[in-house]
């Protein structure tokens, strides 16, 4: 390491200061090379010798300088004040960015003394003063020596040129330094302006954010990974009953309770690896300042930041929403209970009405088949006609109630539409013949041999339309026309037109034509009777079958009701040219009462029926058909009688089970019989005609079911089928 490096290291510690001081020392050393330098020494601001060259021990150095005079090393601006004795010496102030850090003292030998005055020597090295880093003093002896030494004059001229070059370099460096200072100042000013602008932007953004937060309809709380709340808006304050000063700094568990653990763990925020925003929402019960609990729905977002993870919770008090939901649930339950009560009432009414109607119509048919007087036959027919009409009204009311409550269902199956139309005309001819009305069938183009629909509901629609047409037509006739529409489309439909020559309907009357309990004219009820339910029911049923009903009418000229139903897929379905080509399979027709009577089925039947009139009627019909009948009043007695007959090896061939009886109903009795491994057929007798009612009977263990009023042919057909299979076993 050079002497200059050594001196620089001793005085300046940091790299920057060291670099600057080293350059200064190198310049000083170069400028003093022509002189006889005995020693260079460096002193710190406390008057201690830090280094010397050639080296000497510090104690002797201090002793040697003691004779130099007292050295005042205090800083006076940027200059050092020194007092030296008569020995030839040079004192150079050292500094770092304008701060005095030490003193360099050069001691000259006698050969260096010359004719130069101190002022001239200072002029020889003005760059040291210009740099603000040196002050020189020379003793009077040095001045005399310099003046008398010609060699020194020559060297002075050489060094004057050297000095001028160094002065130029120093001035250039100073200019560059000034330029850098100005550049730094410009940059600092620009930076300050940018910082001020960004600060203003941040203040505006913060004000906007605070405004948004405070006007938000939901509470918003932000907290860190430790759960300490960093901010909240006014809604959150009022939601929990705290002031903002109370909330900020509070642990978030005070507000959110156990949900905090869910947020940090189950919410998926336990890991801090992810830096993207993640949101979850949930619902918890929160607690207010007064201890009141309330339901709260909140959404949580979490984002990784430099200091960890930040959570933002957006909360909504859903107390009112929950109360509304509870009110809706209560109202829904209430309506469901009302509908259930209504359904049960209708079911009971159906049973209570159909059960006596079974006896009335059944005994009327029995009387009509006896050898009664013609006047008596006429009276019996009146009973049957009005009883049937009353039953139709009951069926309409029940059907409408079921449709409105959504309890009616359609059962799609492959059926022959032409046969359905024939059945309807055959049924309704008994109404047309007395009025001398023609009842015709017309096929317009090819008709599919089968379509996929509900035959019961289609028949019900056509019976209603044809019945109305006959009712409101005094002369002329009624025609049922069929036509296939949209054969080449994905959704073909079969059109049925019921055309009459009746009284017709005005445009104003059509508006309320398909409304329940409404007729085209109130006077119609007095003149023709009816409830006004038929068209409303037909309209609803046609929609359930994938179609609709439309009407065209001219008052006094007649009406045309056009109903369409979906046919289903017609691929591989034969199209018939007209109605005369359709054949009815006679084997599929139910057995008639007379055929059963003639066959004389000698089977044993257990009849479980609580109504005395129906007991007498059904047992009368069964016995007349050659059957052996045992009658019981309830399901419990039927269960006992059936099991005892099996135990006695004389089981009944079939059980007719009324499903609504006291003590034990038919559903329970059938279930218990199957649980006891009873394998004989059970036929359910019920006043309910819904598909679900049939399924309920089958689920209870019944093999088949039939509805009241009892149709003899249908009942005897079931008995023959089931009892025959039992005999075959």
The rounded distance between the terminal residues' Cα atoms is: 126 Å
Number of helices: 24
Helix fraction, binned, reads 40-55%
In round numbers, the mean pLDDT is 73
Low-confidence stretches: 55-87, 113-121, 124-146, 522-529, 579-600
Biggest sheet record? 5 strands, antiparallel
Number of strands: 25
- Kindly estimate the percentage of residues that lie in beta strands according to DSSP: 15-25%
- Briefly note the structural class of the backbone: alpha+beta
Spatial ordering of strands, largest sheet: 8-7-11-10-9
What would the principal axes of the Cα set say about the shape? Answer: elongated
Q: Nearest-angstrom radius of gyration?
A: 59 Å
How many distinct folded domains? 5
Keywords:
729 residues, alpha+beta, Beta-Lactamase, Helix Hairpins, 5 domains, 5-stranded antiparallel beta sheet, 5-stranded mixed beta sheet, 24 helices, nucleotide-binding, HisK_dim/P_sf, transmembrane, transferase, HisK_dim/P_dom
Put the structure in a nutshell.
The chain has 729 residues and is an alpha+beta fold.
How would you summarize the topology of this molecule?
Blueprint: H1 3-11, H2 15-31, E1 37-43, E2 49-53, H3 58-66, E3 75-76, E4 79-80, E5 89-96, E6 99-108, H4 118-124, H5 126-130, H6 140-148, H7 150-215, E7 219-224, E8 229-232, H8 234-240, H9 244-247, H10 253-256, H11 259-264, E9 278-287, E10 293-305, E11 308-317, H12 319-369, H13 374-404, E12 413-415, H14 417-432, E13 438-444, E14 447-448, E15 451-453, H15 455-471, E16 477-485, E17 493-500, H16 507-510, H17 522-528, H18 534-544, E18 549-554, E19 558-566, E20 575-576, H19 593-599, E21 604-608, H20 612-624, E22 628-632, H21 635-647, E23 654-658, H22 666-675, E24 682-686, H23 691-700, E25 704-707, H24 712-728
Parallel strand pairs: 13-16, 21-22, 21-23, 23-24, 24-25
Antiparallel strand pairs: 1-2, 1-6, 3-4, 5-6, 7-8, 7-11, 9-10, 10-11, 12-15, 14-20, 16-17, 17-19, 18-19
Helix pairs in contact: 1-2, 12-13, 12-20, 13-18, 14-15, 15-18, 21-22, 22-23
């Amino acid at each position: 390491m050079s002497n200059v490096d050594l001196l620089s290291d001793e005085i300046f510690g940091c790299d920057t200061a060291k670099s600057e001081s080293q350059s200064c020392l190198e310049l000083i050393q170069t400028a003093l090379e022509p002189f006889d330098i005995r020693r260079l020494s460096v002193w710190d601001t406390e008057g201690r010798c830090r280094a010397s060259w050639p080296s000497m021990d510090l104690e002797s150095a201090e002793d040697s300088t003691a004779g130099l005079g007292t050295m005042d090393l205090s800083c006076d601006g940027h200059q050092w004040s020194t007092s030296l004795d008569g020995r030839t010496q040079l004192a150079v102030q050292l500094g770092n960015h304008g701060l005095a850090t030490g003193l360099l003292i050069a001691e000259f030998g006698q050969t260096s003394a010359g004719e130069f005055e101190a002022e001239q020597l200072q002029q020889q090295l003005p760059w040291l003063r210009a740099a603000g880093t040196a002050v020189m003093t020379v003793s009077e002896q040095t001045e005399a020596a310099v003046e008398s030494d010609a060699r020194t004059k020559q060297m002075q001229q050489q060094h004057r040129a050297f000095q001028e070059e160094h002065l130029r370099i120093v001035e250039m460096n100073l200019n560059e330094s000034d330029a850098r200072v100005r550049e730094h100042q410009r940059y600092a000013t620009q930076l300050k302006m940018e910082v001020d602008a960004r600060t203003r932007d941040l203040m505006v953004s913060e004000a906007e954010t605070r405004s948004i937060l405070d006007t938000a309809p939901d509470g918003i709380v932000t907290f860190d990974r430790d759960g300490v709340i960093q901010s909240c808006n006014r809604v959150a304050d009022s939601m929990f009953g705290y002031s903002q000063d109370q909330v900020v700094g509070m642990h978030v568990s005070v507000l959110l309770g156990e949900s905090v653990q869910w947020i940090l763990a189950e919410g998926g925020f336990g890991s801090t690896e992810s830096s993207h925003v993640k949101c979850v929402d949930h619902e918890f019960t929160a607690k207010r300042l007064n201890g009141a609990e309330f339901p709260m729905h909140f959404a949580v977002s979490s984002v990784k930041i430099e200091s960890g993870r930040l959570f933002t919770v957006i909360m909504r008090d859903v107390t009112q929403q929950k109360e509304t939901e509870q009110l809706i649930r209560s109202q829904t339950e209430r309506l469901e209970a009302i509908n259930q009560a209504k359904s049960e009432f209708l079911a009971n009414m159906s049973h209570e009405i159909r059960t006596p109607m079974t006896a009335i119509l059944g005994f009327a048919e029995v009387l009509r088949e006896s050898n009664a007087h013609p006047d008596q036959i006429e009276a019996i027919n009146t009973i049957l006609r009005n009883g049937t009409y009353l039953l139709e009204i009951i069926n309409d009311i029940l059907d409408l109630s079921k449709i409105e409550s959504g309890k009616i269902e359609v059962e799609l199956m492959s059926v022959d539409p032409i046969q359905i139309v024939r059945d309807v005309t055959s049924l309704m001819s008994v109404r047309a013949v007395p009025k001398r009305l023609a009842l015709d069938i017309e096929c317009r183009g090819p008709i599919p041999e089968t379509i996929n629909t509900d035959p019961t509901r289609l028949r019900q629609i056509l019976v209603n339309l044809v019945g109305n047409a006959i009712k409101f037509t005094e002369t002329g006739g009624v025609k049922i026309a069929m036509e296939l529409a949209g054969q080449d489309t994905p959704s073909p439909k079969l059109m049925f037109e019921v055309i009459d020559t009746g009284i017709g309907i005005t445009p104003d009357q059509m508006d309320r034509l398909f409304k329940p309990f409404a007729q085209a004219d109130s006077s119609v009820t007095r003149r023709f009777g009816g409830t006004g339910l038929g068209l409303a029911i037909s309209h609803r049923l046609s929609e359930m079958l994938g179609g609709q009903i439309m009407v065209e009418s001219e008052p006094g000229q007649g009406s045309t009701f056009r109903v369409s139903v979906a046919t289903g897929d017609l691929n591989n379905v034969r199209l018939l040219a007209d109605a005369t080509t359709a054949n009815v399979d006679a084997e599929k027709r139910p057995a008639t009462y007379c055929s059963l009577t003639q066959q004389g089925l000698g089977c044993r039947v257990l009849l479980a029926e609580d109504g005395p009139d129906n007991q007498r009627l059904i047992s009368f019909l069964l016995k007349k058909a050659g059957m052996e009948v045992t009658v019981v009043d309830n399901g419990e007695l039927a269960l006992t009688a059936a099991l005892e007959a099996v135990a006695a090896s004389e089981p009944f061939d079939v059980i007719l089970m009324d499903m609504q009886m006291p003590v034990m109903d038919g559903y329970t009795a059938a279930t218990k019989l199957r649980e006891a491994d009873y394998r004989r057929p059970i036929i359910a007798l019920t006043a309910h005609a819904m598909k679900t009612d049939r399924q309920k009977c089958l689920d209870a263990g019944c093999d088949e079911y039939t509805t009241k009023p009892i149709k003899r042919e249908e009942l005897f057909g079931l008995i023959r089928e089931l009892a025959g299979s039992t005999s075959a076993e």
